[in-house]
Every structure is written in C-alpha cells, then in structure tokens.
Amino acid sequence: xxxxxxxxxxxxxxxxxxxxxxxxxxxxxxxxxxxxxxxxxxxxxxxxxxxxxxxxxxxxxxxxxxxxxxxxxxxxxxxxxxxx
Length: 84
Description:
Elements: E1 2-5, E2 14-15, E3 22-23, E4 28-33, E5 36-42, E6 49-55, H1 58-73
Parallel strand pairs: 1-6
Antiparallel strand pairs: 2-3, 4-5, 5-6
C-alpha cells in the first residue's frame, strides 16, 4: 500500500493516484496524533488502495471532543426548541 502526502485537487474528496477517478470519502480514517490524520482510500474503478497523511487541525478536534463531552454529560441531549 502506498502512503503519500497529498495536495487536494478535487471539490469533495481526492482523485485516485493511479486513474484520477474522483473519490468522495476515505474507506476509513485514523487519528494518529494532534498533528496527523491517516486516511485509507480505495478506488472502486481501478482497485488501487493508498493512504494519505492529512494535517489535523488540533483546534477543531479539541472543539469537537469538547462538544461531544458537553452533549453526553447534560441531562437532556435533545432539548425542545424555544418558540416565541
């Protein structure tokens, strides 16, 4: 399996490294540490598998984890909307 650093060329995901087919989402992703996310891609068109090391935005990851903790610790995770 090939691991690469990648420059985004597509509007949604990336393009296959072999056939340039547009791939929308990785097959799976791994949070490696606060600076890197490893995406595992699989192209259905040419059956190529490759990995992409993506820089992680630590601020957004920390914010997401904080929001998850807030939602899971409050008593009503789905409060009723206020209507005026």
